[in-house]
Structure formats: C-alpha cells, structure tokens
Write a structure and sequence with these properties.
The protein has 359 residues and is α/β, with parallel strands linked by helices. It contains twelve helices and 16 strands. Helix content is 35%, strand content 25%. S-adenosyl-L-homocysteine (SAH) binds next to helix 2 and helix 3.
Length: 359
C-alpha cells in the first residue's frame, strides 16, 4: 500500500468510513502525500499528457483568443489574466509568447496562477521566468485581486473532488471508502439514506456531484457578472447530466485501480458541464457551449497555425500534423470530441471567438 493509503487506512480505523469526496481530496492534495503536491506528473516519463504538453499550438491559439476577447471587453488595463491549475506553466508560456503580436494586450496583462501544489508552482516559476509578464501565485480564486479578468482552465475541473451517491436498498446513500477485514480499502454505500436526492435509479446506480466545482462556478460567475470578463474551461466530460461512475485513476499512462495506491496515481472524474452551467447562470453570468474541443480549435485557427509552422519548419511538418490531429481530431484516441469547451462570461459581451454559433 502507498504511504497515503496507509494514512487513510489509519484514519478510517480510527474514525470510520470516509466519503469518496474526502478520499479524492486527500489522494490529490494531502499536503504531504497528495498526488499533485510533490511531483511533476506530466509527459512521456510521467503519468499523463495534456494538450498544452502535446503541442505549443494549443497555448498559442488560446493566447490569441484571449487577446481578441480583451478587445471585445473594451481593452481594460490592467487585465487580470488568470489560469486555474496551470500544471507546468506550458500553456501560459505559449499564450504569452503568441500574444507578443498584440503589444497593447501584453502590456495590460497582470497574470495570476492559481495553484495548490508548491512543487508545481516552482516549475511554473521556472517556465515563466523569461516571459516578461508580471506573474503572481494564489492558492484559490478568492485570493486573486479584483478587476476585469480572463480566466483559463485546462483539465482543472476534473481534478476537483466529487461526491458519489449509490442506489442501495431503494435509497440513495453517499458512497464511502472503508476498510475490509483483510486491511484493503473498498467502496461501500454509506449507512444513512439521503432523502434530498430526487433522481430515479436502480440498485447499484451511481450519481456524481462536484460541490467544489459548483462553488467555483458560482463565485466565478458572480465575479465576472460584477467586474467583467470571460472564463474558458476545457475538459473531458459530458454535456448532459447522467448517471454513472466516472472516477478514474491513471499511472504511467495506464488506467489503474482507484483505491490501490492513493497519492501515487492521478484521480479524475468527468466534468458535468450542464451542472457547471447551471451554477454559473445562477450567479448572473452567460454561458456558451459546451462545444467539442476539435470544433473550438478549428474555429480559432488550428489548421492555419499548423500549416504556418510546417511551412516555416518543413522537417517538422509530420510532428505538427500529428499534434493537430491528436488535440483536434475526433477519431478514437484523439481529444477533439472527448474534450469539451465552455465559456462563462459577462452577459453584455457578444459571444467569444469560437462560440458565435452556440449559446
Ligand atoms: N492545466 C495543466 C495541468 C492540469 S492538471 C495542463 O493542462 O497541463 C491539474 C492542475 O490543477 C495541476 O496543476 C494541479 O496541481 C492543480 N490543482 C488540482 N487541484 C487543485 C486545487 N484544488 N486548487 C488549485 N489547483 C489545483
């Protein structure tokens, strides 16, 4: 068992079963043993790869998208340019480099990176050392200074801890993690029924809710509605709320058991975009999408960008084409339709680039 597994087993032995939500929170962000807290999980040598780590085009296009959105907002100066969960800082680095073609935008930027992990914050600091932009760090959105903002979040919401309810003996019960007699962690339905859940379900069905993401969407929606701005969320998930267990653990680019080695594997859940949209709207913001990542990237120019890069470095043309397909293609194993893109914005703004046809 991992160090964190032993720690969680001791917790349960002492105080009883813990909700899945608490388990996921500990697995990812326990200050000492949490998965993100003291490692670099990205890339070929790590556990998983994200779009900005696949290709520079991803961050570049988002940087140019942000410059256009800033112009639509009436060119506020300063602009809070905020990224939630920036990983290695690659997306921000590519975005800031591409934005050099819009010097007024670049000089208006005041960058804040919202990051829970001290070791990833250190890597972000190194990545962005020569970016030339003023950058600060915050551990939560609430700590970011006021003012008009553009917010970017790639594969952030899927890392926030979810709560699960399981249908058991004709009632919904919160799903918990407990300790079996052999000392292994196992899932079980909690004892108390949860009468406030109205959904229909059959024995064994699972419903997921992400309270942390709802809180974030509500406070972000309220902030954008009051102070102006736009937020861009890119993540994997579903457009319509549905039943099912989407909790998943990945280690070394392979799917592994969620409970076997907490702290040593990445744990994520599908994002329920419909639910996210409800909270942002309830706070007074407009919502666009979700649309497929492939459609979004094509709308904002990935085909043209791939061609320009290939023309400039013909020996790398294959590499750019493969990267383009991987992040924007819609075949099995590609990210273009698995990943969705959703925007939360001040209600008075026109639809942002990429969303002209969608509301
Ligand atoms: N956006 C990056 C990394 C995605 S992984 C990329 O696309 O490559 C998730 C990121 O969110 C990591 O940086 C992780 O440390 C951070 N994170 C996870 N939970 C968080 C939380 N509760 N608050 C702030 N950051 C968090």
């Amino acid at each position: 068992m991992s160090e964190l597994g032993a720690h969680i087993a001791a917790l349960i032995a002492e105080d009883g079963p813990i909700p899945v939500e608490r388990f996921m929170e500990l697995a990812l962000t326990h200050p000492e043993y949490g998965y993100y807290m003291n490692r670099d999980p990205f890339g070929a040598a790590g556990d998983f790869t994200t779009a900005p780590e696949i290709t520079q085009m991803f961050g570049e296009l988002i940087g140019l998208w942000a410059a256009e959105v800033w112009a639509m907002m009436g060119r506020p100066d300063p602009l809070r340019f905020i990224e939630l969960g920036p990983g290695r800082g690659t997306l921000m680095s590519d975005a800031l480099r591409a934005a050099r073609i819009a010097p007024d935008f670049r000089t208006a930027l005041d960058v804040t990176l919202v990051e829970a992990s001290p070791s990833l914050a250190e890597i972000q600091h190194d990545t962005l050392l020569t970016s030339g932009a003023p950058i600060s760090w915050a551990s939560a959105l609430a700590d970011v200074p006021e003012g008009p903002a553009i917010v970017i979040a790639n594969e952030f919401l899927d890392a926030l801890p979810i709560r699960q309810y399981v249908r058991s003996h004709n009632r919904w019960r919160e799903r918990v993690v407990w300790l079996e007699k052999n000392g292994q962690l196992a899932f079980a339905p909690g004892r108390q029924p949860e009468p406030f859940i109205q959904a229909q379900g059959e024995e064994g069905d699972i419903i997921e809710v992400c309270p942390a993401a709802h809180r974030l969407m509500y406070s972000l929606g309220a902030r954008l509605a009051k102070q102006g701005g736009v937020a861009l969320f890119l993540d994997y998930g579903h457009g319509v709320t549905s039943i099912g267990d989407t909790l998943q653990a990945v280690r070394g680019h392979r799917i592994v058991d969620v409970l076997t080695e907490p702290g040593e594997c990445d744990i994520t859940a599908h994002v329920d975009f419909a639910a996210m949209a409800r909270s942002a709207r309830a706070a007074g913001a407009a919502v666009y999408g979700p649309i497929d990542q492939g459609d979004f990237l094509r709308e904002i120019g990935i085909d043209t960008r791939a061609k320009a890069l290939s023309d400039r470095s013909p020996d790398r043309a294959d590499e750019f084409e493969q990267a383009r397909k991987r992040v924007a293609g819609k075949d099995v194993g590609e990210m273009g339709s698995l990943f969705k893109v959703m925007v939360v914005a001040h209600r008075d703004l026109p639809p942002p680039p990429g969303f002209e046809g969608a509301k």
